[in-house]
Amino acid sequence: MKLHFLGTGAADWDPAAASADPAFRRLTAAKLNDDLMIDCGPCVFEFEKTFGYHDLYKQVKTILVTHSHNDHFRAETITRVAEEADCPITVYGTPVIGTLLTESEKLHFIPVSLFEPFTVGTYEITALPANHSTQYKEEQPVHYVIYDTAEDKRLFWGCDGAWLYNSTYHHIKQLKFDAMVFDCTVGDLENDFRMFEHNNIRMIEELLKSLVGWHHILKEGGQVYANHMARTLHTSHALLKARLAPLGVIPAYDNMTATL
Prior knowledge:
260 residues; alpha/beta; Metallo-beta-lactamase, Chain A; 6 helices; globular
């Protein structure tokens, strides 16, 4: 299973420029294998052009949306992906997402239910509540557990969100992961208001002490990635890499690929 990071940043800048610099950090999005996307914001087509890809989204069949914030979800971008894809696309997300999309012959929406697995091709996917909020009081942002039954590989996608809800913790502590991706918006800042819905590095460190050190939920050879890193709250990519290395965490960067 291949994880391709299309954007690794947070909503602390205006996506008007373009760069191949690892520290540029587009708004967060990713692609799993060739057929599944996780979030689909305003930068995915600029990413394709900047890095010289062609038909990067042609084989996409499924888009998982974590929540409705503009750095993760743009209805017009999803519509364009659907228009360029070889087959109709199904979008899964919170019920709010369905009210913001325009469905068509090539674009369908299915709401997710917390803790209830659903099957998409070879993937078994479960939405879990994330410690995050949006402008819609009725919306519960989600993390995703994605299990590829064909390859026996499991991914935890944990952006956006601070710490973990107790119910999410109890669900994932029973599983074994090949890779885990955690929100790392706040960097090394302390006493910051954003920590009520985003992680800093110390929070990730404490999470891993329990999840990996105590519950051993990471498979042998499994990897933890930091993602959703605010440009204005982080050092250079090189310094961040050195800072996270003792924790066994790799900071993702735009156009990074990882084989699970």
